[in-house]
Amino acid sequence: MNKREIKKSFILLSLFILLCFVIPVFATILSEPIFVSADTSTDGCKVLLVFDREMGILPESPAGFTIMVDGSENLITEVALNENPAIIALSLTDTIYASATDIQVLYTAGTVASADGGILVSFDNQNVTNNSTILFPLFGFNYFYDSQKRLDYIELSTGEIIDFQYDLNGNLVKKELTN
Length: 179
Known about the structure:
Layout: H1 3-30, E1 35-40, E2 46-51, E3 65-69, E4 72-74, E5 76-81, E6 87-92, E7 103-107, E8 123-127, E9 141-145, E10 151-156, E11 161-166, E12 172-178
Antiparallel strand pairs: 1-2, 2-6, 3-4, 3-7, 5-6, 7-8, 9-10, 10-11, 11-12
């Protein structure tokens, strides 16, 4: 081989390495993180978002995220990286109960990025798997009547009492909640 053929071989080999290895690595680094899945925590207080790579420093809540539970928004109180940095944990205002059937996460693009600099793009109505084991509280009521068979008070399962007061003619004049 002469110098010209060696130089040509070197250039072709360099081009091959660039095309096969270097460019795909940079394309992966600079591409946006991909949403993989979402699940509730078993206590129903968080939604855990899984991405295809480690996520970077997060902005304050709600950071562009919205959680919808059976058609109503559940406000986000905190956005944080989980122990696994590919998971973002969204803390919620209201508990998601085991009976919730339609849980969605939405994201409006903003400042959420992966640790390698890829910017998260907007996504709509991604299903959230409900792993909550929390049952919706059932409220029991005990009704108490006076000697004239009027409702005297209701005892709630919380221990609170709704007291009813009547005038001399038997008309209800006051309803009061007490502890």
